[in-house]
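[step 3/7] fold_predict: job queued, chain A
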Amino acid sequence: QYQIGLRFSDEENPKIFDVNAYQWGNARISVTDTANTLLFYSRRPENGSQDEIELVNGNYNVISNGRIASYTDGDALTAFPFTDGSSKYHVFTIDWNLDLLHHVVDMSNESGNVIIKNQLIFADTLIYGMCAVRHANGNDWWVITHKARSFIFALFRINNDKITGPFFQKVGHSVWSETGIDYPGWGFVTSMRMDVNTAGNNIYISTQQGLHEIFNFDRISGVITPKAHFDQRKIISDRQNGYSGGVFSNDGQLAYKLTSDSLIQFDISKVNNNKMVIYVDDSDRPPLYSWQCDMKRASNGNIYIGRFRSVIDVGTLISDTNSNYLGVIHDPNKRDA
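[step 4/7] structure written:
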């Protein structure tokens, strides 16, 4: 996430590369072809701006016209291919104003070119979090995000050059801080993690404050229904002990979440009064755990954890000198792993 990435052209022996990162918030998206060849990824610009990202090709050069508007935290961006057989890719971002923007990347040559940039799709107060799910018809995509300070999901249906929506659904818990646990200057949750299982029929959302929810998703109708939730917001007393990362296991039966000093495993199959049974590994195992982590499920079956800064105590940061490490969850389908 910070300084290094992995190339999965050889899934058994992924190769490490330097993402030429300047700040945290890098590689929020990475796009490969069917052979796992890296086509492009995102990184924060050298000037450290939080309201723009650079799209960088597989040769580690910025794509032509490749600086686009996007916030760099949370899952504020997503990317997926056109379904018309072309070499074009949709990129959706949420900008500093909490609006939804659309971009198109043409990868007909390895250098790449952004041919549509900063197209305003929806102007509203969205949260920094979204995901994309392929429609059951195989031709369309769903883009799913959430309105801030509300119970409301906003969905968009994408068919190559046609975008329809938003379609609103009021479901789940309110995605904002409850009275008494707001952080100074953070009156409501601004970012969250969103992940979709490999089958595309479950969505996992989690906020930094500790709200975790699993939803069923109908890939035909786009209907979202609650499946399970676990609310840890009332036990968090410090922003630095917030929750980051968040990803399904490969079989979709488990979900993983990080705190500053522990790895949490949610067993989705064990639902008791609509709450998930959890397993917590809080052993001292650096450099696996750290503040401002991100987690990604890889094509080789492992889950990789990027680190930002090591944390030796709540609110106490040490240097970034160990930021070049990645943590790995092997066999993430195993319970109590």
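[step 5/7] annotate
The longest strand covers residues 113-122.
The radius of gyration is 19 Å.
exit 0
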